[in-house]
């Protein structure tokens, strides 16, 4: 049986390192996450998790404390998507299950093929989804939809009310070969400081009230507007030409 790109525990150490390298690479303007094969992600490799628990020794309290640290470590690996300054696009095809849903909800944009389907499978294996799905999904698809999907653990195919999952008419890997690269180029042509700032302000504003959010973006722009990007953008519009910007 295919593992559908199931995530081993090693993934949670390697993934944030890769994101950090891309974040620091001045030649990278956008990051696209996709899955090899017929499916985007089959969720967490439960064999790895079971092995971790079985290898733990000591009393229940100490085993539980070690497990909590491991969960926090894994959560932090997915939150690395939000910490990455560059926009992160999820290019989803086939199945997106369990922790895979947690990953795509942390991404900035989600593009899906028409054959994509989603399932929050954790509840079926006696786990409350703990990789960010329960925290991020309600803000994307609405509380009621998130509650239904998370408690039921069933598959959902192209739900029309998931307005922030952007659907692509093609199938399978066509998304990562054609559509996602076009979006990467489109975003990559924008002023890099403005793109980075937009992501940073949006993520920070989730935890702020309106007044605090406005204060945060005012402080951000008071320094970022001093860059050459604004002058270049205005000049390009004036002379009807494509602007060029310094790498970040």
Structure description:
This protein is of the alpha/beta class. It has 2 domains: 9-187, 2-enoyl-CoA Hydratase, Chain A, domain 1 (Alpha-Beta Complex), CATH 3.90.226; 192-239, no CATH class. Helix content is 52%, strand content 10%. It is built from 10 helices and 7 strands. It has helices spanning 11-24, 46-55, 60-83, 99-106, 133-141, 143-152, 174-188, 192-205, 210-224, 228-238; strands at residues 31-33, 88-92, 95-97, 109-113, 117-119, 156-157, 166-168.
Attribute tags:
248 residues, alpha/beta, 2-enoyl-CoA Hydratase, Chain A, domain 1, three-stranded mixed β-sheet, 52% helix, globular, Ech1-like, fatty acid metabolism, delta(3,5)-delta(2,4)-dienoyl-CoA isomerase activity, isomerase
Overall domain count? 2
Distance between the termini: 44 Å
Question: Which band does the percent of strand residues land in?
Answer: 5-15%
What is the number of helical segments per DSSP (H or I, 4+ residues)? 10
Helix content: 40-55%
